[in-house]
Please model this.
Amino acid sequence: MRNAVRHAALAAALVVGLGTAAQANMITNGSFESGSPQPGVGSFATIGTGGTALSGWSVAAGNIDWINAFWQASDGTHSVDLNGNAPGTISQSFATAVGSLYRLTFDLSGNPDGFDGIKQVLVSAGDTSSTFDFDTTATSRSAMGWVGEQLIFMATSALTTLTFESLSGGPNCCYGPAIDNVVVELAGPGGAVDPVPAPATLPLIAGAIAGLGWLRRRSA
Model:
């Protein structure tokens, strides 16, 4: 009986694990923890147009500040201020299936220093773009007030480019919108993350379920 319980637990874990694997993040370095050279702890590094110091990402225009514990991150210790010495744009391309729906989620805040309480970022992916606002009036470096945002988009090519573009500040201004914890997952109808595992996993799950049924009959 003890072995039966153990096998049932393993089968259940297999089902859960395979379902989770089907929702893997398609973005590399979504929390901006990786890259070289790293900014010092409690500081930041400014990355200019064409810069690739931030693993998985490129700076497509202007420049950005790569933050390392200079303020409270939403995930880990790093984040990105989309304004370095000027409004900046970062992007990352990833493989997609034409016609499929995807869900982008990310955390949004803003540099609490300086001026312009409302920070704006234009987010684009596939056939969709949207502007998101964040009010920094009641925030500080130790309480950034991160807010979760999302965007549902359809892939129009086999390679989709995700872009975050600062709409805050003038051409020579800093203190921009801040982003962290970027995730892209395959989505189902209506934008819900699709819980159905990849076809290759279905026989394994069917076997696990059948095993659970056999164990249930044995214990009856």
Summary: Residues 1-22+196-220 form one domain.
